[in-house]
Amino acid sequence: MATRQDLANAIRALSMDAVQKANSGHPGAPMGMAEIAEVVWNHHLQHNPSNPNWANRDRFILSNGHGSMLIYSLLHLTGYDLPMDEIKTFRQLHSKCAGHPEYGYAPGVETTTGPLGQGISNAVGFAMAEKLLANQFNKPNHKIVDHHTYVFLGDGCMMEGVSHEACALAGTWGLGNLIAFWDDNGISIDGHIEGWYTDDTAKRFESYGWHVIPNVDGHDFEAINKAVEAAKKVTDKPSLICCKTIIGKGSPNKSGSHDCHGSALGDAEVAATREAIGWKHDPFVIPEDVYAGWSAKDKGAKAEAAWNEKFASYEKEFPDLAAEFKRRMKGDLPKNWKSSTDAMIKSVNEKAEVLATRKASQNAIAALAPILPEFVGGSADLTGSNLTSCSSFQHVSGKVPGNYISYGVREFGMAAIMNGMALHGGVLPFGGTFHMFSDYMKNGMRMAALMKQRVIYVLTHDSIGQGEDGPTHQPIETTAGLRYIPRMDVWRPADSTETAVAWVVAVESIHNPTSLVLSRQNTSFTKRTDAQIDLIRKGAYVLAEAEGGKADVILIATGSEVDLALKSQAALKEQNIKARVVSMPSTNVFDRQDQAYQDSVLTPGVKRVSIEAGVTDFWRKYIGLDGAAVGIDTFGESAPGGALFKHFGFTVENVVSTVKSIL
Ligand SMILES: Cc1ncc(C[n+]2csc(CCOP(=O)(O)OP(=O)(O)O)c2C)c(N)n1
Ligand SMILES: [Mg+2]
After folding, report:
1. Are the C-beta atoms of residues 653 and 575 closer than 8 Å to each other?
2. In whole angstroms, what is the distance from residue 285 CA to residue 276 CA?
3. pLDDT tens digits for range 457-496
4. How far is the CA of 197 from the centre of ligand 2 (A)?
5. What pTM does this model have?
6. What are the backbone angles phi and psi of residue 165, rounded to the nearest 5°?
7. Is 411 a catalytic residue?
């Protein structure tokens, strides 16, 4: 029978051999964390390799994603559908074993990791989602939501600022279901860390309110196991287990040094390591007794069956809640979604209110919240400005149940936490900040897009229109930048009707994130026909057709500038210039429409002028080289918004003269 050491060494062998074959990758972390992995995966993690989507499985996150061969080894060895051929093609095109763990590639990978610091922050989101669901669904004697989130992280994750943001909040929430293992190996890419990382990490986490277990020998199975047992007993605080490890352990000449962090050991050193750890098998050969020692298939099937029984008795007693739990974990929309939201949009259009689009967004949130119990709102300390809350929400802090989160001034942390929540399932997170500070959370937003997650960003104060706060707070290139993220849908609605549609489409977009870019100031309102309401969903549409025949020019505007386009259309008419006004709340969505529709909105051959309070370069693809853009290519200024629009040329006179300059 294989010993525990044999099991751990199987990870070492697979990791060094796969990295060697690919001649690329990171053997150090998997070899250094092999014993910790054996303890967690073989003795604690509740999972079923035959059903990676079991709702109540424990979640495992490898935040130090460069050590991807660690998780691939574990998934393969415990019996997931990740055959050896996939391990052999590590880091090659179409392999499930991508360079870093990619969500949606290998089964059992819960989140994409590699951008350091985000995995641990996702883990906080997973644990929060569990807590929110437990509050909503568990009943006395029926704990159907009851699992742990385990996370491995290295020095890099610890150094990254985002881990500070998320872990501080995890402490405040008292997330007892979160257990983190710090790979304290004293090494990062530049070498021994004394010159750049001397934090007292244990004290840091204690000050956050975590339960910290210091000085655990990360190669001693019993010591690690004792620490995990202790961590599980503390249910009102997240636990950090500080594991002293040796990077690349087992490699006689490279362990303990950054030489084994990020490149293959080399044939000679691989051979020397085999010898040193007593691994007698050829590359990619795992003896049966080692597979038997690792397999989680029977254990996992039993664990899931036991939970299924629990769920069945819950279902008997609380059939509606059970059905709702299933719906939410599947990510289906509520049954009455279409009728409720159609009615909501219709009523907004009929009300014809002149509002800031941030206020229109709040109205939409208030209308959607009662039909979407999965909504989890929040803001990075700007609730009153982003208008992200409403009376349906209860503030939640971990100790008090609810569905609205004050993230504190932690934009990036918020983005990474929302990704974790979305990936956990059962909740639909949205979070607000000033549009300008989406830059702070941008990589988290990019990760949501990469992982096809439904996360909604409420980005208010969307232009120079925000006014007196000045250029630090005035987005210029920001909207365009977000539009360039593949799979991110950006909406910059013009008024309450477009805002309502944007919210509905965002919720319906179950495989991509959405950025709602909203004004601080009031915008004018335009009443839509039923047909136009449907067309808003296409991202762009003819809002006001040229009168008196074929258009001489098409004015394309977004958000607060749609009003200027309409006024300019009237002024142009006086000069016998026929202008069509196209409202384009979402360029991304419009780009996906068929050619015929696109041509019906932007008729080929008709000259175009774009109007948006942002960079002009972005608009070239719509206006062409013979069109013109009214926009801003400098930073803003401090002044009332109205004065700034005038100063930067957002006036009827300037639009008219710009049109004339190209006709
Ligand atoms: C945000 C981010 N910055 C930089 C990197 C590049 N990088 C990958 S691993 C690493 C060092 C990580 O050190 P540590 O977490 O201690 O890993 P170890 O070498 O101990 O495995 C760096 C800088 C990254 N992946 N993500
Ligand atoms: Mg390290």
Report:
1. no
2. 18
3. 999 999 999 999 999 999 999 999 999 999 999 999 999 9
4. 10
5. 0.98
6. -60, -50
7. yes
